[in-house]
Design goal:
Oligomer: single chain
Structural class: mainly alpha
Low-confidence stretches: none
Helix content: 40-55%
Distance between the termini: 41 Å
Number of strands: 2
Number of helices: 7
Largest sheet: 2 strands, parallel
Strand content: under 5%
Mean pLDDT: 76
Radius of gyration: 19 Å
Order of helices and strands: EEHHHHHHH
Length: 145
């Protein structure tokens, strides 16, 4: 058996805060892969693409994902109080705010979970909760976190 005195862990934050302390750490980015994006390195691998151009392209793509991130975060918040609720949508099903709201309406969760509906009305989920997460995800993208 080896004597190990330097062990640490790293947790992906995904869609919520991770409160850890040494020796466990978490990323400030939504996904751990975001910490690995090195635009200068990607530029060196690309043909005739500057680091700034690659970063701008990726930010444009990421901006289109904000509504999907908001739906996933809203559902995760809802599921914390009821684990038998719907799974997250496919990225292709939620490409903007309109498709996000349509996806949420198709769930028909009020009919499936009548007792749960009192608190989680469609307006609360698709309006208030979705809007809060959409604003948070957009702000995180703008700030680079």
């Amino acid at each position: 058996m080896h004597n190990v005195d330097s062990v640490f862990g790293f947790a992906n934050r995904d869609f919520g805060p991770v409160e850890l302390g040494p020796p466990l750490f978490s990323t400030h980015a939504h996904e751990i892969e975001d910490e690995l994006l090195d635009f200068d390195a990607l530029s060196a691998l690309a043909v005739n693409e500057t680091a700034a151009h690659i970063e701008a392209k990726l930010k444009t793509i990421a901006t289109t994902m904000v509504p999907w991130i908001a739906v996933v975060a809203a559902l995760q918040q809802m599921k914390q109080s009821r684990p038998d609720l719907p799974t997250s949508p496919a990225l292709a099903d939620v490409v903007d705010s309109t498709s996000a709201r349509a996806w949420l309406k198709r769930l028909n969760y009020p009919a499936k979970h009548r007792d749960f509906v009192r608190e989680w009305t469609l307006e609360h989920l698709a309006g208030t909760i979705f809007a809060q997460h959409e604003e948070t995800a957009g702000a995180a993208l703008t700030s680079g976190e």
